[in-house]
Amino acid sequence: MQITNNLNNDISAAPEWFNQAINIKPSEKILESEKGPLSYSIWPTESKNKNLLIFIHGTGAHKKWWYPIAPQFINYSNVIAIDLPGMGDSGFRKKYSIKDFGQCIISIIENEKSNLDINNIFIVGHSLGGQVAGYVASEEKELVSNLIMIDTFIRPPDWDPSQNEGGPLRMIKYYPDKTTILNRFRLLPQQECKNEWFVRYIAEHSVKQTEEGWRWKFDDSMFNSLERLFGYKFSFGCPALFIHGADSLLMSANILDNIKKIYSDIMDFREVEGAAHHVPLDKPIEIVDIIKKRLFLDNL
């Protein structure tokens, strides 16, 4: 794809369903907290129901990764997509942890439960977002009705962080113009994605202009300092589904087998052919179909 600073031209080959979805504009909200502002978007349901479906993105990503997907569910549920702290339009913090991310999700749920008549809460998380979703469902068992993790790398409870030190501290890099930084956008872990219009769309919303130049929206310090769930085993009691890409590098070797060994008694598993780690980008229509049948089968 020839990348320019004109998004509409660059994604002109996108399918009609994609264009229709991104033109359904949600309400943009900010929830203030002592540690910093939390940004999220909400699409109100178009039918009478008491459902709330929450989408959580992965590391370094943002809520707009879900903008083409979230509107597919407004006939069945109120829908929220969240910017985790240090990413997207949420504020930077001195420290980052999955447990704190989980508390952010809970705060947003509590805030919207007071605004909407909600009985059923469903959480879908991709990659890091799956860990956050699993933590919330484990810590607040009465709160979450259904859980879906998408290609989430789950460390075993006995994983030793001292044997897996983080990499060097990332330094903030600035770029002279928007086109230059957009051409530097890459999926991590690195993979090809045939849906270039989807990748181009999320790249557009991954950058911001500052006095020093163009930079990525995420806090570079987060990658090295994020506190993971060491010695933690998920214990959610709600129905749960683990979706994974057949070609995902994060599920290679014995990683997926270990996840199944630990969690097959409380979680179902579904493989998506032709998808790598970024399943929602590789197979968006399939992901929408799987989620609908999992959560809203009685309404289809």
In words, what does this structure look like?
The structure is a single chain. With 300 residues, the chain is of the alpha/beta class. The protein has a single domain (20-166, 226-295), classed as 3-Layer(aba) Sandwich (Rossmann fold), CATH 3.40.50.1820. Helix content is 27%, strand content 18%. It contains 10 helices and 10 strands. It has an 8-stranded mixed sheet with strand order 1-2-4-3-5-6-9-10, with helices on both faces. Strand 1 and strand 2 form a beta hairpin. Helix 3 packs across helix 4 (128-139). The longest helix is centred in the middle third of the chain and has 16 residues, at 98-113. The radius of gyration is 18 Å and the shape is globular. It starts with 6 loop residues before the first helix and ends in a 5-residue tail after the last helix. 39% of the residues are buried.
